[in-house]
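Structure first, sequence second, as always.
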């Protein structure tokens, strides 16, 4: 089981990265990414801190921890340069904050984010078919999330992704200790979105291969 969308006190979470990792390890997850919110104000310091943490995470741990960031509420022109900066610094997982209905996201964010060098479009709301096709073309994951509010459009995202052949991922988008749900509970998020057991199995196989690629294995 994997969760590639988590937040620490480096942005708007409340736990140290080490506390997050320990809780996920205890829940039985195999890999996570620390993906704190960034914009021009904090990207340099946050990227440095996350890379430092993942560098020193024990290699013999049962949990793999990948470096990541989430590009959040950016002016549209800033997605490409900030994604490029993060990638050049060595960040493995780049998440973009999609057009959730729960927040006032700038219209057009989904498309511009998908055109940048990202790995996951988080909670993309009522994503259009053209945007889903673009995600498929660029091998970008569309997220189904357990986070309240953002999760309201999970069925729409799942239905369009399955129909058009785009990749899906299940994430917690955790900010608080209580957000870190068990692997079984995260699977239920996929089921409530309309996924069958075999489809959820394929998602985790796909994400597992993606993580190995990011780790250079």
């Amino acid at each position: 089981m994997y969760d590639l969308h988590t937040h620490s006190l480096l942005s708007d979470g409340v736990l140290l990265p080490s506390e997050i990792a320990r809780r996920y390890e205890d829940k039985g997850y195999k890999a996570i990414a620390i993906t704190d919110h960034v914009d021009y104000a904090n990207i340099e310091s946050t990227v440095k801190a996350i890379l430092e943490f993942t560098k020193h995470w024990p290699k013999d741990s049962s949990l793999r921890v990948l470096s990541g960031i989430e590009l959040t509420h950016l002016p549209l022109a800033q997605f490409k340069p900030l994604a490029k900066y993060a990638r050049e610094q060595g960040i493995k997982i780049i998440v973009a904050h999609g057009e959730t209905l729960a927040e006032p996201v700038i219209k057009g964010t989904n498309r511009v984010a998908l055109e940048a060098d990202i790995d996951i479009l988080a909670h993309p709301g009522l994503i259009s078919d053209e945007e889903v096709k673009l995600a498929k073309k660029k091998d970008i994951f569309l997220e189904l999330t357990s986070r309240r509010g953002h999760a309201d459009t999970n069925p729409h995202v799942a239905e369009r992704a399955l129909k058009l052949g785009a990749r899906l991922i299940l994430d917690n988008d955790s900010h608080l200790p209580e957000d870190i749900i068990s692997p079984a509970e995260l699977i239920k998020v996929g089921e409530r979105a309309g996924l069958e057991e075999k489809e959820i199995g394929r998602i985790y196989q796909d994400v597992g291969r993606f993580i190995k690629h990011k780790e250079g294995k």
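Margin note: The helical segments are 17-27, 43-56, 79-89, 109-115, 129-137, 154-164, 183-192, 197-214.
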